[in-house]
Amino acid sequence: MNFLAHIYLSGDNDLIKIGNFMADGIRGKHFEYLPAEVQKGIVLHRAIDTYTDAHPIFRQSTKRLHERYHHYAGVIVDVFYDHFLAKNWATYSNEKLEDFVERFYQSLDTHRDILTEKTLHLKPYIIQHNWLVNYQHTKGIARILTQMDHRTKDVSQMQFAIEELEKYYDEFETEFTAFFEELIAHVQLKNTEL
User: Fold this and answer.
1) Which among 17, 101, 161, 177 would be 20 to 30 A from 67, CA to CA?
2) Which stretches in the chain have pLDDT values below 50?
3) What pLDDT was estimated at residue 18?
4) pTM of the predicted model, to two decimals?
5) What is the pLDDT of residue 147?
6) CB crowding 72-96: b at 16 or more within 10 Å, else e
7) CA 56 to CA 62: how far, in whole Å?
């Protein structure tokens, strides 16, 4: 799952959301210095990624992309799944997507002192291009994939994955819907352990 799903699955605690959001840039166990709730978010992020990567529905989605995008297939499906979460946001939340995202951006500013360097570097791009809200539109997904491709020096060719999204749109959406219900249940169970 990508940024939006990780933030959504963190519940209402801002520090858990921030930990979950920052987790990709944190290696190993080098996060003991962070507040306990942020640490929980990092651990939750890793549990979500482990569950997602091994899930047969997610793997079914990535198979459509493996031949063309190789090991970037999973990253692309993460973005596709965030698109379907954003597009169908009202199914999963009573709060408007724009309001949810704005509150998250405000919490990043409020807790700026605990953000990692990588997060501080990424934050302006995400906010300027409003990635989290723009996930709901295929144009937004195309722009995000292009920006991500540039970060790989255009090696990943992710910018072209919008073609597969459009070609297999219904299949990806059906897979996301089935998978996300199971992921929500898994995260609820994981949260009782944390």
Assistant:
1) 177
2) none
3) 97
4) 0.94
5) 87
6) bbbbbbbbbbbbbbbbebeebeeee
7) 10
The amino acid occupying position 65 is L
- φ/ψ region of 11 (left if φ > 0, alpha if ψ in -120 to 50, else beta) reads left
Residue that has been written with the tokens 């190789």 in this structure: 70
What pLDDT shows up at residue 35? 96
Give me the pLDDT at residue 105, please: 96
- Among residues 20, 22, 23, the alpha carbon closest in space to that of 7 is found at 20
Closest CA to 92 of 3, 2, 183: 183
Q: Give the chain's length.
A: 194
Positive or negative: CA dihedral 93, 96, 102, 103: negative
Counts of helices then strands in the chain (DSSP H, E): 12, 0
